[in-house]
Amino acid sequence: MGTEESKKRPLVFAYYVTGHGFGHATRVVEVARNLILAGHDVHVVTGAPDFVFTSEIQSPRLFLRKVLLDCGAVQADALTVDRLASLEKYSETAVVPRASILATEVLWLKSIKADFVVSDVVPVACRAAADAGIPSVCITNFSWDFIYAEYVMAAGNHHRSIVWQIAEDYSHCEFLIRLPGYCPMPAFRDIIDVPLVVRRLHKYRKEVRKELGIGEDVKVVILNFGGQPAGWKLKEEYLPTGWLCLVCGASESQQLPPNFIKLAKNAYTPDIMAASDCMLGKIGYGTVSEALAYRLPFVFVRRDYFNEEPFLRNMLEYYQGGVEMIRRDLLTGHWRPYLERAMTLNPCYEGGTNGGEVAARILQDTAYGKNYTLDKLSGPRRLRDAIVLGYQLQRVPGRDLCIPDWYANAESELGLRTGSPTAVTAENNSLTDSYPQDFEILHGDFLGLSDTLSFLKSLAGLDALVDSPTKTGKHSIRERKAAAGLFNWEEDIFVARAPGRLDVMGGIADYSGSLVLQMPIREACHVAVQKIHPSKQRLWKHALARQQARGQGPTPVLQIVSSAVPEGKGVSSSASVEVASMSAIAAAHGLNISPRELALLCQKVENHVVGAPCGVMDQMTSACGEANKLLAMVCQPAEVLGLVDIPGHIRVWGIDSGIRHSVGGADYGSVRIGAFMGREIVKSIASTLLSESRLANGSSPDESEEGGVELLEAEASLDYLCNLSPHRYEAMYAKMLPESILGESFVEKYTDHRDPVTTIDKTRNYGVRAAARHPIYENFRVKAFKALLTSATSDDQLNALGELLYQCHYSYGDCGLGSDGTNRLVQLVQEMQHSKASKSGEGTLYGAKITGGGSGGTVCVIGRNSLKSSEQILEIQRRYKAATGYLPILFEGSSPGAGKFGYLRIRRRSPPKQN
């Protein structure tokens, strides 16, 4: 470090390392190594194994002290952070014993005569240094106040004080030495940026390969998860021919196929990485920094609620070094396309990798008295700013301006690959560009949604359709050519997006006024609109000519070429088309229609144009929903109560039965008619009872009977069946409702069922009792479900949520809206739930129900958010296919509704001029 500094006395550094993971210990190694090379003593306070340090530093100036003063993020499994457990563990580790920790650390720092304290993100170390009168500095790319702020908002406000305590601890630092790939860190006001901290290589690629017996013609992937998913079995067919996989962290008992090689526990990972062709693992500072430094393509799998990840991912993808693998494909061994894609990458990081040396120099200089900060603020001022910025950070749960929109809207469990018809394009999108290069966005934000990017690319490729081979007739050829010139690329185009929905609770009770809980799914419909006169549109001319050839008049024509929301699956493909179309048309004409009003208009289209007697929940969810939240709405007619967070430990899936569903089908309509008939019969019974009560007691009943009269009055004018409570239904009306009634008999006695979108067939028998009972009890079940979502995390909570789903499913069946396929799927969930494997360990799946209009379509499943649940869902898919021959589409994840998306106003970029 230079001759002048070497003449000064050796320093004693106390270096605190977080218990979050190996990545922190490995970067501390490099900084500590350079401090020791400069002649200083370094006392490392860590929970990491000794070999992480001693394998790289063999010096008597290195001292290791095994103490853990924070816990980091507690992981439910290898790829999922448990937010509530993280907060509770931190409280147990660092908050409850805080006084004794501070007293112990102050004494220890004085005992070693520490000159300087360095913290790799351990908050209490900064406060202990201040109490001991010793300066301190943090070296990190994230801080726990940022990470835990989102956990507090999502998992428990009673832990809010943790965030402020951490910010206060950090405020005692002299400054922050900030590493690349950093998060917002509001507690630090003085910042010095340094290059990547990367461990040096000990051996060259050829030397490592020779020791492992691997030839240069073999492709090698290093599997680096820092601990693998429990019970995960690696299979030979996971790797393409000619590939080998080097496995880090494998247990001694784990048996590996011949094309997988188990590495020693103390294997020096940087050398192995440099000898490999790509890496498969999870994102962390250590893996990302070293992958970039060694220009190693990195196939990564997302971690749920690992809030440091989006910033590291941004850096990785900026330097063209990353490929995201969908978790489902990791588990099922669908590795080939990702490995092949990784081989086409050319990582281009050109920045420095000597961050350890630079940071060590800054630490030494600061300890010797050099002032690196230009505008040093007082401690109270820094603390006040930290609290203000921390509060701003928490205004929107889990979000900050620096977090990429595409990441915030991406899904956390199994990623983009859903098994739906869009799976191939979604997979390709995840491996390609992340910004629409063909269009200039003049208004709006595509929010980084991969399906929107895909739509824009297909839009840009319209003019290539004319060159596509086709076997269709002459009319279709002309229309394909017309489609190639569909848009005037010199004028604005308006694009809207609306997702389908998964009916979590509520279903067919919406038309009876129930509370419903609906989640917008990832799959969505996109619509592009441009205002143009019909006379200038060739596609319109061809459609008109075809109509005239058939003897038809000039009627409007809408032809849907494709939609990403599969039809007939019970996930509201029609609502997504309606909402997206109306949103785009409104945007093109400058109409400002609120999401709620737009949904109501779309319902009118469905009811009065299409002729399907659906409720409004589908359109409301598609228009008003938000990603990863349940839209809570009382359908009287459409009162949005708000958005309900899905707790982090809970996940919902949709599994398609393969049986086509339609709300326009006779079964759905007859059940709806039966429910409305039931309401009219209840009103009639209540009116009769009310008259009898008044006759018996005179015109003014006594006080004890007044409440009963008021109830009868309300029930005699019942507007929505769901306003009748289950106990009143059972006490007063259940036995008086007929099991079924002939349409003609009902009309003779009650005149009309007063449903504006259905018509009674006088020759048909309608089930009344079950159709009326379902929405009354469903409304109660939905309210209970909503309340349970906010209750304490426990198996009892999950079991109760699942039981409510099962009850709903069998109530559908009582109404005649079940199907063999959906019943089979629910039965498979039950078998999985009650299997010996689930009983012996922690349960994962808890309940399932048919959704939407019933009679087929999709089943909603609820379970624990874990890898085991993902594996069980895949097993259900396999068993269903084995029994029926049909592989179900899996609906996983969520995306924003049309209101949140808004609209895009785009224009085609001009092609570059030819020289």
Automatic annotation (TrEMBL):
Record's superkingdom? Eukaryota
User: What organism is recorded for this protein?
Assistant: Nicotiana tabacum
The protein in question is named L-arabinokinase isoform X3
